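Page 47, continued from p. 46.
Same chain as before, 382 aa.
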Amino acid sequence: MTGTGDSAVADASGEDRLRRWRMVLGGEEDGTGCVLGGRDAAMDTALSALYGRGGQRSAGLGGSAPHVARWLGDIRTYFPSSVVQIMQRDAIERLGLASLLLEPEMLEAVEPDVHLVGTLLSLNKAMPETTRETARAVVRKVVEQLEERLASRTRATLTGALDRSARTGRPRHADIDWARTIRANLKNYLPEHRTVVPERLVGYGRAARAVKKEVILCIDQSGSMAASVVHASVFGAVLASMRSIATRLVVFDTAVVDLTDQLADPVDVLFGTQLGGGTDINRALAYCQSKITRPADTVVVLISDLYEGGIRNEMLGRVAAMKASGVEFVTLLALSDEGAPAYDREHATALAALGVPAFACTPDLFPDVMAAALEKRPLPVP
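Result:
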């Protein structure tokens, strides 16, 4: 027999289930008969302002900055940061609020994230001077968060790769490459002892302070690549801070802009880009190719969805020529946490036939991809 306590628990559970369904369905004519109050009612109001009732999207935020700023404050009160960022993105895309981001009071109210930075960069040329400093502060906050997350691991991973790229015949014990040493001494195998006598040691050298490798980041700045541009700019600054890597950062649409002299500050790099416009990968690669002086020690990273508006065959010919000269060529369809975007599959297939697989890469995987490229070993394709 079920006791009174069990019935009370069951009733409470049922009420909570109805309350949750009411929050999901929205609107008062949802069939649940549940009336929201307090915090739940406030959350429901914030959701309804953006998503409307009964699944109907409507511009319930109104068209003024004060209304939107107040709503932004409400959602930050009631929802976790990850949910706030999604709701902000929906508000910008669904309700056409991008123009309001040109007002300082709006920017001060938003939760900064990579997508917001992409939106601000796309509005860069239209941004009034009164908003520009606030926008830079928002962008800098996101850049600093990314650097904190990615910089230390990137430097450690690539420093190790550069150390390992220099082989020596007299390694210290900690630097012995045991796999290569065993292969080099297989002729000295002693069956009775089931061991190899290592007459010749093969090990890793220590990278000197001089430049060992050159890296060219070639970044498509078309509108769909916004998150990739943000992450690539941060990584460009990190690579530029390493003495043993000479880093060049090039952005392109139908024109090509070299932002290498701004790499000391990724915020300057980002405000030097202009998201949107067409795409001429061939022209960008021609510029990058002209800057290569040590092919065998150079890694070119093309970050693009491969929708080419230039000359396709010349583009592929340039990739093939760089590969033949000894350049390590990497193609990333995206450098973001969102996975692969829409991309030109025909061009991706053609690049793969040249030995250049095209794949989407998360920021956390990028250091491993670069380490593999620097060491000239197979890339860790997801």
